[in-house]
UniProtKB/TrEMBL annotation:
Family from the record: Belongs to the ATPase epsilon chain family.
This protein's UniProt keywords: ATP synthesis, Cell membrane, CF(1), Coiled coil, Hydrogen ion transport, Hydrolase, Ion transport, Membrane, Transport
Signal sequence bounds: none
Entry GO MF terms: ATP binding; hydrolase activity; proton-transporting ATP synthase activity, rotational mechanism
Entry membrane topology: Peripheral membrane protein
GO cellular component, one term: endomembrane system
Subunit structure as annotated in this protein's UniProt entry: F-type ATPases have 2 components, CF(1) - the catalytic core - and CF(0) - the membrane proton channel. CF(1) has five subunits: alpha(3), beta(3), gamma(1), delta(1), epsilon(1). CF(0) has three main subunits: a, b and c.
Localization terms from the record: Cell membrane; Endomembrane system
Record InterPro entries: ATP_synth_F1_dsu/esu, ATP_synth_F1_dsu/esu_N, ATPsynth_dsu/esu_N
NCBIfam families: ATP_synt_epsi (TIGR01216), PRK00571.2-4 (NF001851)
Physiological role: Produces ATP from ADP in the presence of a proton gradient across the membrane.
SUPFAM superfamilies assigned: Epsilon subunit of F1F0-ATP synthase N-terminal domain
Protein name: ATP synthase epsilon chain
């Protein structure tokens, strides 16, 4: 049986999870990374993507997360996300609206740095659409 550790998933609106879990896969800025009990401490920013949580029973739950950071510490893992929504609650309309907003941000960018940031967000959102199609 997998050893469990404390996992917290928090967004500005609410705390989505606070429970003992076996494993979490996080869409980190440097690529996806998995966290198990007794993982070495570190902090990573997170990108828009699918965060996967394996519970005690072995099943996986998936959450769309956008922005924020993951803090792996001795006590477990805390993910503070700018937005976090269970994949089952995401509507195609919400995602389309986010993509439309990102496209407008690209069009409205006043300088290269703003445009690059907006283009990156847009690309990440399109990646999420692809990930959800496969899920």
């Amino acid at each position: 049986m997998a050893e469990l550790f404390q996992f917290e998933l928090v967004s500005p609106e609410r705390q989505l999870l606070s429970e003992q879990v076996a494993e979490v896969v996080v869409p980190g800025a440097e690529g996806e990374f998995g966290v198990l009990k007794n993982h070495a401490p570190f902090i990573s920013t997170i990108l828009p993507g699918i965060l996967k949580v394996r519970g005690e029973a072995g099943g996986w739950d998936e959450y769309f997360v956008r922005g924020g950071f993951a803090d792996v510490a001795a006590g477990g893992l805390t993910v503070l996300a700018e937005q976090a929504v269970p994949v089952g609650e995401i509507s195609r309309e919400q995602l389309d609206k986010a993509i439309q907003d990102a496209q407008e941000d690209v069009a409205d960018a006043k300088d290269d740095a703003s445009r690059q940031k907006a283009e990156m967000t847009l690309a990440q959102l399109k990646d999420v659409v692809e990930a959800l199609k496969k899920a």
